[in-house]
Amino acid sequence: MNTSVRYLRSATCYAEAPNLWINVGETPFAYRDLGLQGGVPVILLNHWGAVLDNFDPRIVDGLATRHHVIATNYRGIGASGGTAPLTIDEMARDTIALIRTLGFKKVDLLGFSLGGFVAQDITLKAPDLVHKLILAGTGPAGGRGIEKVGAISWPLIIKGLLTLRDPKTYLFFTSTANGRQAAKAFLDRLKERKAGRDKGPTPRAFLRQLQAIKAWGRQAPQDLGRITIPVLIANGDDDIMVPAVNSADMAQRIPEAELVVYKDAGHGGIFQNYADFVPKALSFLGA
User: Measuring CA to CA, which residue among 154, 122, 163, 136 is closest to residue 235?
Assistant: First the structure.
């Protein structure tokens, strides 16, 4: 496996970015690297069960027009080694170690869903490491309804299997005409990469991450007032996985937070509205 963070890159889009690995301790972490060198890199942290192929290529490519972007797997997920952690705390510590092993002293974080939990915890654990923070489709520790993610998701996962549709159709998007159209477009984008695709999550890793999500929903609230950096919070107005009320709650508790709510959108609001989200994120992150 490649343990060097320096290499010649020829990819011009996320669908062609090479798979890379770096050893953090004795565990190899898989990642992909795209965009401009220099400046503060943007680290992407994704949802429950997500592998490298689950990052929206339109969002990654859009951010990479002006930033160095790194998408990574969690431990035990996809092509990353080790065993999937049972807590957000462990995922956050893994990611801090990964960032430092990559040689970065300051990063921006974009966390979607589970990734937003991890991004908050990283920022509280290592405040000097994080420059700016984007939280999408996510919520705080102890947030309303987060411990029920499994109970909400399993029937829709089964529905996806029975209807021969990807469960994200039902989990991430509304049942309106706009929602269904956006779901198809998003799922088509995820298939654009043809070669070097990542491995899917194992059932064991999938269930271990769900335990971490439930624990996050049941733990005591964190002091989000300690997050004093600029934070952009985005969500759909009809998120059934992490209720949108959690986005408003975080925006009230974080001093420098800006909240964006997309209408007729669900958990995957930033995917449905990527044409609006990408310019917003680029403006927020700055040069």
Answer: 136
How far apart CA 160 and CA 171 sit, in angstroms, is 9
Q: Which tokens go with 127?
A: 């405040």
pTM flag (> 0.85): yes
Residue of 174, 147, 119, 110 whose CA lies nearest to 242: 147
First to last CA, the chain: 33
Please give the Cα distance from 38 to 36 (Å, whole number): 7
Residues 6+ apart with CB under 8 A from 250: 135, 138, 139, 140, 224, 231, 233, 257
pLDDT tens digits, 46-68: 999 999 999 999 999 999 999 99
CA 42, distance to chain mean position in Å, is 12
Residue with tokens 């999938």: 206
Angle of the 177-190 helix axis to the 57-64 helix axis, nearest 10 = 70
On whether the CB atoms of residues 202 and 216 are closer than 8 A, the answer is no
What is the phi-psi region of residue 78: left when phi exceeds 0, alpha when psi lies from -120 to 50, beta otherwise? Answer: left
Structure tokens at 183: 């779901």
